[in-house]
Structures are given as C-alpha cells and as structure tokens.
Design goal:
The protein has ten helices and twelve strands. Strand 8 and strand 9 (225-232) form a beta hairpin. It is α+β, with helices and mostly antiparallel strands. The strands form two sheets. It has a six-stranded mixed β-sheet. A six-stranded mixed β-sheet has the order 7-12-11-10-8-9. Helices cover 30% and strands 24% of the residues. Helix 3 packs parallel to helix 4 (114-123) and helix 4 packs antiparallel against helix 9 (287-296). It has helices at 11-15, 22-39, 72-83, 114-123, 151-154, 180-189, 191-204, 244-255, 287-296, 322-325; strands at residues 4-7, 47-52, 57-62, 96-102, 129-135, 143-150, 176-179, 217-222, 225-232, 267-275, 302-308, 314-321. The protein has two domains: 4-171, Cytidine Deaminase, domain 2, CATH 3.40.140.10; 176-328, Cytidine Deaminase, domain 2. The chain binds zinc ion (ZN) (2 copies). Residues 71, 73, 112-113, 115-116 line the site of one zinc ion.
C-alpha cells in the first residue's frame, strides 16, 4: 500500500516530504478551506479540491445535492481548462492535487472517488502527489490527518495516454495477462470463465455506439445467480450515454431485486469485452464503472478484461480484482 497517513502530531516534519513545495501546499490548503469554511456547517458531506499546475491554482468544490452532478475534482478541472491559454499540445500538466473533506473517523478518507481519479489521470503524471486532507468535525474543522498517495496509485491500469511510472502502483497491481496457449488452457480449464467471456463478447455486437464507433460488452455473475447478466454501452446524441458495465448492473438491479444490502450478495465477477489490439492497452473498467462495481461488489470481485482484435477474436485476457483496481476506495460502508 502506498498510502501514507500523516498525523497532526508530526505533520510539519512529514508534509515537508510530500512532493509539494511547502509554500505551495500552505496556499493550496488555504484555498481548499475557503469554500468549506463558508458551507461545511450546512453541508457536512461537501468536499473541496485544489489543483496546481506550477503557476496557477484551480479550486473546485461540491456539496450535496450538487455533488451528484459535479464533483470537486471535475469542478476544478473545468476551471483549469477554461483558463488554460496555452496552445493544445503545450498544456501545463497538473503538478499537485489536494482534496479536503470532513473525515473525522480513522476509517474515513478525503481522497477523490474513482471517477475523479480518472479525470486526474488525464492531466497528471502517475507520480503526481495527491493529498487527502481530513478534517475533524469540531467547530474549527481542524486538520487531523493527511493521506498521501499518487495519481498513478489511485488509478492504476487506466486508459490514459500517460504510462505508469516505475515503482508506482500502476506497475504492480496484480494484473495477470493470458495470451496464446496460456489463454487457451485457461478457457478449457475454467468453464465458468469461458461462459462469462462469451456472454460479454456476444452482447458487444449490440452496443449502440454511433458516435464513438466503439462497442463494449459486459457480463457479470452474482451469487447465487449463475447465468451471466449482460449489458452494452448505449450512447446518445448529447454524449450522455451509459457504459456496458453500468448497463449490466442496471439490468441486475431490475431483474434480480435484492432486499439485502448489496454487500451481502455481491457481484462475484464481471467481464468487459472491447477491441484492444495494443499490448499495453487495457480492457478494464473506467473510473466511473469501477465505482459502480464497488457499489455492488467488494475488493475480491473478479475483473476480467477480454482484449479483442478488430474482427472480434479474443487474443488476450486480463484478470485482476476490484480491490487492486480501486485502492483506497469509497463505498457504501463509508456513508
Ligand atoms: Zn468524485
Ligand atoms: Zn466505464
């Protein structure tokens, strides 16, 4: 685990090594506090975020019910994009990120959600420091703990154009890749795996993707239901479609209603099938979908990525767990 928790009693000493110059960090914390100081009393679940690109600071915040529409990171990123005056291709990347929230208990976290981590990976290097500033719920909302990690550790195996840096979690998140004979043997040995992959690959043909031209299929199994539940991406003309994993989960919720909490009856495995012909391309769920799977899964939920050739043939299989893809997660147990 690359998460380092820095408690207040040795805050000054450890934060000096967080990878962000101290005057910059002090300014980021000051900026993050401003929206919280104004609004946190009315909205104890609100969160703020500050991005630093080496020159400018970009502040975002979100508060219920608005956080359902725009998250703090997305809000900050939009402002960064709006103010960026540099030419395309010459954009300044984000060098440091902090998020701040009321998180008074030791099991809490102030780090970004999976969707926001995906946004961050678009603008950051894998080694960019990300700090979660946790506040107590005392009248002054004092900082009591800081979670320190990196963009690459938070969102490993992303579909970003930036490769993971050596030594970051993106290099060692427990991904198994099967090709050639190993893939054939695995498909022969594990019938349930083959059924799940076939379901995801077959349904992919029905994906409604007239804009991206990129069809994706998904299939999940959920105990004690053994038949795969499938879904495809469904786009629309305002680019507000849903992803294949989301479609499968929606179908699961509708067709197999469950009165128990999701954690009692979790998603056992989910397979994603898409065209990924490059060796370093992943066929793994995006940030939003990792968060959706987390709602009904758990860290042991198996994630299967079926990498297809353009003609639809399976040539490689990626295999990992949700826990490996979504470290430091925020799930139903946190609310
Ligand atoms: Zn978020
Ligand atoms: Zn997705």
């Amino acid at each position: 685990m690359e998460l380092i928790c820095i408690r207040k009693d040795h805050e000054a000493e450890d934060l000096a090594q967080c990878g962000i110059p101290m005057p910059t960090l002090v300014e980021m914390i000051r900026l993050a506090r401003q929206p919280l100081d104004r609004m946190v009393v009315a909205n104890p679940q609100m969160m703020s975020a500050v991005l630093w690109d080496g020159v400018d600071y970009f502040v975002g915040y979100a508060a219920p019910p608005a956080h359902r529409v725009v998250h703090a990171i997305s809000h900050a990123v939009v402002q960064r994009d709006a103010r960026a005056s540099h030419a395309p291709g010459d954009e300044r990347p984000i060098h440091a990120v902090i998020t701040m929230a009321l998180a008074p208990n030791s099991g809490d976290s102030a780090l970004p959600c999976a969707d926001c981590c995906k946004w961050l990976r678009r603008y950051t290097d894998a080694t960019t420091p990300v700090l979660g500033i946790m506040l107590r719920s005392d009248p002054l909302a004092t900082v009591w703990q800081v979670e320190k990690t990196t963009s690459g550790a938070l969102f490993c195996a992303s579909m970003t154009r930036l490769p993971p840096a050596a030594g970051c979690r993106g290099d060692s998140f427990g991904l198994q890749v099967y090709t050639g004979d190993a893939l054939t043997n695995e498909l022969v040995r594990d019938v349930e795996l083959r059924v799940l992959l076939d379901a995801a690959m077959n349904v992919r043909r029905f994906g409604h993707a007239p804009y991206s031209k990129f069809q994706v299929g998904a299939a999940l199994t959920r105990e004690p239901t053994s038949a795969p539940i499938v879904g495809t991406n469904v786009e629309n003309s305002v680019y507000a479609g849903i992803h294949a994993e989301q479609a499968a989960i929606v179908r699961m919720v509708n067709e197999y209603p469950c009165t128990e909490p999701p954690s009692v009856w979790p998603i056992q495995a989910i397979a994603v099938a898409l065209v990924a012909e490059g060796e370093h391309q992943h066929a793994l769920p995006c940030g939003i979908c990792r968060q959706w799977i987390r709602e009904f899964g758990n860290p042991e939920t198996e994630i299967l990525g079926a990498k297809l050739r353009a003609n639809g043939d399976l040539w490689a299989l990626e295999r990992t767990t949700l826990g490996a893809l979504l470290p430091f997660d925020f799930g139903p147990q946190n609310l």
